[in-house]
Amino acid sequence: MEKVNQTFFLSHGSPTLSIDDTLEARQFFKSWSQKVLPQKPKSILVISAHWDTKYPSVNTVLRNSTIHDFYGFPDPMYKLKYEAPGAIELGKRVKELLMGEGGMKRVDEDTKRGLDHGAWVPLMLMYPEADIPVCELSVQSKQNGSYHYNMGKALAPLKDEGVLIIGSGSATHNLRKLDRSITNGVSVPWALEFDHWLRDSLLQGRYGDVNEWEVKAPNAKMAHPWPEHLYPLHVAMGAAGEDAKAEQIHTSWQLGTLSYSSYSFTSPL
């Protein structure tokens, strides 16, 4: 079994990523297997910003249904399906690691839930064949960055077991500040400043600062009024380890304030 030496944080942006060919990020996700990760993983664990629970939860299903958890978008988007196989064994392994290494007292299994758009929209572009088993893990928005980083640390052994660990969230996420008058690709100053701080902190290996982003980052509350879209990043960082090398693998903008900045974390061999 081939190890997966990298973890990833992907900014999944707007659900329109699923149909809008004008978005730069769409081309990035579609080029995944050619340009980012040619190796085909055994299974995929997605930590999604769109599943927020009191206790960590994994979905353990035979086949993933497609959850259209967005409102007021064009009709064709509600007909899209991504019915990848479930990864029940992986879900149980995640639970075992979180309750063992991670010291968590409780991890729930959801035997009905499919994939929300934080998982299926990017995966539909990255792995369109939908033939790789996928398990989702929730975030806990009442907790902090360090909690999610430690959750990631507990999941590190999965990389040696051929599992691709993806945190799916957004480098910036303030839906009240989206500006439809701004051309895609252009960003407003406060959002760009946060995005650059995040990039520089990650590329310089200042993971401790990123764990304390609320106090360290400029415009933290403006970029993330609620933290759930950043916490998948902390899980991906933790799973890669403190000696991992971060690289920005994509950046682009939509509606002025929505960053698609995405990162890989490569662990030393």
TrEMBL record:
Alphabetized UniProt keyword annotations: Dioxygenase, Metal-binding, Oxidoreductase, Zinc
Domain Extradiol ring-cleavage dioxygenase class III enzyme subunit B: start-end pairs: 7-265
Required cofactor names: Zn(2+)
Record's keyword annotation contains Isomerase: no
Keyword Metal-binding belongs to the record: yes
GO molecular function: ferrous iron binding; oxidoreductase activity, acting on single donors with incorporation of molecular oxygen, incorporation of two atoms of oxygen; zinc ion binding
Pfam families: LigB
InterPro entries: Extradiol_dOase_DODA, Xdiol_dOase_suB
SUPFAM superfamilies: LigB-like (SSF53213)
Family indicated by similarity: Belongs to the DODA-type extradiol aromatic ring-opening dioxygenase family.
Protein name as catalogued: Extradiol ring-cleavage dioxygenase class III enzyme subunit B domain-containing protein
Organism: Capsella rubella
Source organism phylogeny: Eukaryota, Viridiplantae, Streptophyta, Embryophyta, Tracheophyta
